Amino acid sequence: MIALLAAALGATIALMSTLLAEVFRIRRARAVVLDQVRYESYLGFVLAIQRAQDLLRTVPADSRDRAADVAAVMRASGLYDARERLLVTGSAEMVLASEAAFRCLLELRDAVAQGTPLIWPDYRPAGDAVAKIVWALRQVARREFQGVPLDLDQIAAVPTADIRDRRSTPILRADDSGSPSPPGP
Q1: Residues 89-96: contacts with CB within 8 Å, 24+ apart?
Q2: Domain extents for the chain?
Q3: CA-to-CA distance for 149 and 131, rounded, in angstroms?
Q4: What is the pLDDT of residues 5-57, one digit of tens each?
Q5: Per-residue pLDDT band at 96 (split at 50, 70, 90)
Q6: Among candidates 152, 164, 175, 146, which has minimal Cα distance to 35?
Q7: Under a CB-based contact definition with an 8 Å cutoff, are residues 52 and 101 in contact?
Q8: Secondary structure string (H, E, C) spanning the chain
Q9: Which distant-in-sequence residues (6+ apart) come within 8 Å of 147 by Cβ?
Q10: Which of the residues 13, 29, 135, 169 has an alpha carbon 20 to 30 A from that of 149?
C-alpha cells in the first residue's frame, strides 16, 4: 500500500513538474513574441511621426483646401495606425511618452491646417518641441529594451566635416596609377 502511494505521489510530482516547465516555456515564448511586436510597434510609431512631420512640409502654402490636404498627408504618414498598434502593445510608460509626442505633432498639424506657413517665426520652437519629445520617446524605448539611454549632447559633439569641407575634399578613387583622383562630374 505504501509503495502504491509512493508511486502515485512520484507520478503526481513528475506531472506537476512537467506542467510547470511547460508553463514557463510558454511564458518565455510569449515574452519573446511580445518584445518583437513592441519593438516593431515602437519603431513604426517613431518613423510615422517623422514621416508625418516631413509630409506636413509638403502641403502647398497656396492650397485651396489646406485642411483636406493636411488630413490626407496625416493619413498617408501611417501615424494613426501606428498609434493604435502602440496603444495596444506598448507598456504604460511607452504609451504615455508616445501620446505626448502624438499630441505635440497634432498641434503642428493644426497650425499647418489653419494656413500657418512652416517658415513662421514660431515654427522653429514647435519643430524643436516635436524633436525634443520624439527624442524622449526614443529614450523610453531604449530603456524598455535594456539599452543605455543616449546623451544628445554627446551625439551633437561627434565631430563631422563641414559640408564645405566634404565638397572640397577629393574622393579617393583608385585609377590606373593608384593615386587619388578628384571627384567626377
Answers
A1: 89/34, 89/37, 89/38, 89/41, 90/38, 90/41, 90/42, 91/38, 91/144, 93/140, 93/144, 94/38, 94/42, 94/137, 94/140, 94/141, 94/144
A2: 31-155
A3: 16
A4: 888 888 888 888 888 888 888 888 888 888 889 889 999 999 999 999 889 88
A5: very high
A6: 146
A7: no
A8: CHHHHHHHHHHHHHHHHHHHHHHHHHHHHHHHHHHHHHHHHHHHHHHHHHHHHHHHCCCCCCCCCHHHHHHHHHHHHCHHHHHHHHHHHCCHHHHHHHHHHHHHHHHHHHHHHCCCCCCCCCHHHHHHHHHHHHHHHHHHHHHHCCCCCCCHHHHHCCCCCCHHHHHHCCCCCCCCCCCCCCCCC
A9: 141
A10: 29
Please identify which residue in the block is written with the cell numbers 567626377.
Answer: 184
C-alpha to C-alpha distance for 134 and 141, rounded to whole angstroms:
11
How many residues are recorded in the chain?
185
pLDDT (mean) for 149-175: 67
Residue 185 CA to chain centroid, in angstroms? 37
